[in-house]
Design brief:
With 437 residues, the chain is α/β, with parallel strands linked by helices. Helices cover 36% and strands 16% of the residues. It has twelve helices and 16 strands. It has helices spanning 20-33, 78-88, 100-110, 126-141, 158-161, 192-209, 237-245, 298-307, 318-333, 336-354, 383-395, 420-436; strands spanning 47-51, 54-57, 62-65, 119-123, 145-149, 177-180, 214-220, 249-253, 278-281, 292-296, 361-366, 371-377, 380-381, 398-399, 401-403, 409-412. The longest helix is centred in the C-terminal third of the chain and has 19 residues, at 336-354. Residues 1-5 have low confidence and may be disordered.
Length: 437
């Protein structure tokens, strides 16, 4: 997504050289779903099933999935599918009845967090989790000012869309939202943590100058929509100190970097040696089943909980809890955090080595199996070339996307079961694409 709200690799209606049956599907989508939806790629992919790191079209062609963190433990993992089916056949209802499953999962999930984060509230999506954090932050602090990065994405509810500049100029920012530059080491000289913190403080000062009390700083701890900024580990701490000194809280959006993806830690914020006030979870939590949540310090929820009831018909239902428990089982028992660390390092080294032969491969930023590879021409961001690469890889049966405010960052975020052989295939196909360009 570029900061004008357009997708780098989007399908343009009427183009794409689609076969007749897929052109008919596109027409049906437009008729049934309306004009706001978008499709990936100049020529959209018509997928019918998935397994592990592979997605398949109707003709049986296999596509290597190098993008979807939703199926974090692999598409249609049999253990997760079985857990969903088993619980669906027994009982499925909400949290207003006593039931063991949601409590078993809550306790298991909380055990992966620092002890200070002692409660979890369940939702269906990351957008809902962030929206709930928004409400709680306002109740806890008495403030209404929020600080986000310039190309952030935090969700699609009214409040979260207003805190997601990456949605583009067609979606207005919230009245009490301030944006700050992403922690890009190429744009911030010297100490990155100090520079990022200074921008947070400037936003705090601006809110206060307008009579607005700060409520929270919220960041995706891998800054994925901003272009993927992971290092140096620890650079977030000074910014968090500033928002807390101003009476606000820190919300770590772990929807994308969480559940072991960064390799060294289960949660992205842990790389920075700090403990957030709230942590939002989403996409990979149920491996495709809609389950999400908000983990938080008990003292942060106290005021909200005393005055407001919270209920979510599907958030925390028994099927969601059983599915999410199976995901944690797979991550632990298949060693997927360890795999993310070691395969991610192999991936990073392979891209760095390839950059010696391809000038268009600019700076690379990575943490585990989350990589952001700049595409440049004469060291300048090149969104057009990035789009050509993304679509050429799609033609070579490799699925990937792009991100960043200038649309020039390959966003590499495969399922956690990705192997070295999968990396080699990706690198070989990328090499072929770059040589052809």
């Amino acid at each position: 997504m570029k900061n004008d709200g357009t997708m780098v690799n989007a399908y343009v209606p009427g183009q794409g050289n689609l076969p007749p049956e897929d052109a008919a599907l596109v027409a049906r989508r437009a008729s049934a779903l309306g004009p706001a939806y978008r499709l990936f790629y100049e020529t959209p992919v018509h997928l019918v099933r998935g397994e592990g790191v592979w997605l398949y079209d109707g003709a049986g062609n296999a596509y290597l999935d190098t993008y979807n963190n939703v199926a974090s433990v692999g598409h249609c993992h049999p253990r997760v599918v079985a857990a969903t089916a088993r619980q669906s056949a027994v009982f499925a209802s909400h949290t207003r009845y006593l039931h063991d499953t949601v409590l078993d999962y809550a306790e298991r999930l909380l055990a992966t967090f620092p002890a200070e984060l002692g409660h979890v509230m369940f939702t269906c999506t990351g957008s809902e989790a962030n929206d709930l954090a928004f409400r709680i932050a306002r109740a806890h602090t008495g403030g209404s000012g929020f600080i986000v990065t310039e190309n952030a994405y935090h969700g699609v509810t009214f409040a979260m869309a207003g805190m997601s500049p990456s949605l583009g100029d067609g979606v207005a920012l919230g009245e009490h939202v301030r944006t700050i530059p992403a922690p890009d080491p190429t744009q911030m000289a010297g100490d990155l943590g100090a520079a990022f913190a200074a921008n947070v403080q400037a936003a705090i000062d601006d809110l206060q100058r307008h009579g607005i009390k700060p409520a929270a700083l919220i960041v995706d701890t891998i800054f994925s929509s901003d272009g993927v900024f992971a290092d140096p580990a620890g650079f977030l701490a000074p910014a968090v100190a500033h928002i807390r000194a101003a009476g606000g809280v820190f919300i770590a959006d772990e929807v994308q970097p969480g559940f072991g993806r960064t390799g060294t830690h289960m949660w992205g914020f842990q790389r920075h040696g700090l403990i957030p006030d709230m942590v939002s979870l989403g996409k990979p939590m149920g491996n495709g089943y809609p389950v999400a949540g908000l983990v938080l310090r008990p003292e942060v929820i106290a005021a909200f909980g005393a005055k407001a009831r919270y209920f979510n018909t599907f958030g925390g239902n028994a099927v969601a809890a059983a599915t999410a428990m199976a995901v944690l089982d797979v991550i632990e028992e298949e060693g997927l955090q360890h795999n993310a660390r070691h395969v991610g390092s192999y991936f990073r080294d392979g891209l760095l080595d390839m950059a010696k032969d391809h000038d268009c491969l600019g700076p690379l930023r990575a943490a585990g199996l989350f990589l952001g590879q700049d595409i440049v021409t004469d060291a300048a961001p090149d969104a057009a070339k990035t789009s050509r690469i993304v679509n050429a890889l799609r033609a070579a049966h490799i699925l990937i996307s792009a991100t960043g405010p200038r649309g020039n960052v390959l966003k590499i975020r495969p399922p956690l079961v990705f192997s070295r052989d999968n990396v080699d295939l990706f690198l070989n196909r990328l090499d072929d694409v770059l040589r052809a360009l």
